[in-house]
Task: structure prediction
Amino acid sequence: MTDIPTLGVEEEFLLVDPGTGQPVALNREVADRAATGGVDLQLELTSCQVETATDVVRTTGDLRDQLVHLRRTAAEAAVDAGARLLAVGLPPTLPHEFPVTDTPRYRDIGERFGMIAHEQGICGCHVHVAVPDRDAAIAVGNRLRPWLPLLLALTANSAIYRNADTGHASWRSVLWARWPSAGPPPHFESADEYDAAVQMLCHSGVIRDDAMAYWDVRPSARFPTVEIRVADVPATVDETVLFAALVRACVMTALDDERRGAPVRPLAPYALKAAYWKAARKGIDGDGVDLDDHAAAPIPELLGRLAERVGPALDAAGDRDLVIDGLARVAEHGNGASRQRRAWARRHDVDDVLAEAAAATLET
Result:
């Protein structure tokens, strides 16, 4: 088994009015207040969002401590600015469009992409795992493709949108797929081929710059890592830690398979698309697509098989109990999408969903 790689996590959050639940354009004010507490928040495309980023860590225990601190500090800064911080994949209630954050890059994206950019409020979670080089990152992406739908189902947290049940556990992933370079990455033979594809997209005007290569796995442009971007922002810290631990084990397993020269599993594009759709539709509460035999199987069962497949990596990192217990807990109690639907079912009142999301955001 490979050495235990370091990891880091970025979480995106929604800012809403405490009374109405409407998204509020206060990301600069919240970031300024968080900075006084020693936390640097990043501004996202729309001005109702902020992003936290952990330091590079070696253990999931350290990761959890940092996530708790970052969420608490960001939530306190939001309160000071007159907002509420929510860990949700999409706003449960929203205006017709979101104001784009006033920076040259974001203004240009808003002008180029129109309503795709202006109808955002999309909040995800990105896990960075250290890899030896960019070619290793590409090889990991090729090997992670069959597992991405399961990771999406595990973290689904955007069932309620526009004051309605979307009928999907992750409506975020459906909206996100409208971007021209979103979704599962193609199979690339090398980092050079990846770079050529991104260059083509840029030169043709399909994307503005290489930072808009939004595929669900990509080599980081800034760090010596592979970045896994498939998830809704999880509802709770524990769910983020579970997701990150499972992702790291998947990356470690992929690196070991690559070193051993194990063949990359053939994957029909239509089957991967079907698995993504089922994951977005059902989340943790229904069947997914088993990409080994294309049969339907319960998502918790498929996640259990994945945990077994990456078990040696979980053992090496000391995360097996965390992941097995976490998957059992999610299978029994549900994830963020499950919480949203239970809250919505009480009275079909979005205020219940907002209250549930606010509580989950700071649950420890």
In short: Residues 7-361 form a domain with the Creatine Kinase; Chain A, domain 2 fold (CATH 3.30.590.20). The CA atoms of residues 253 and 310 lie 6 Å apart. The radius of gyration is 19 Å.
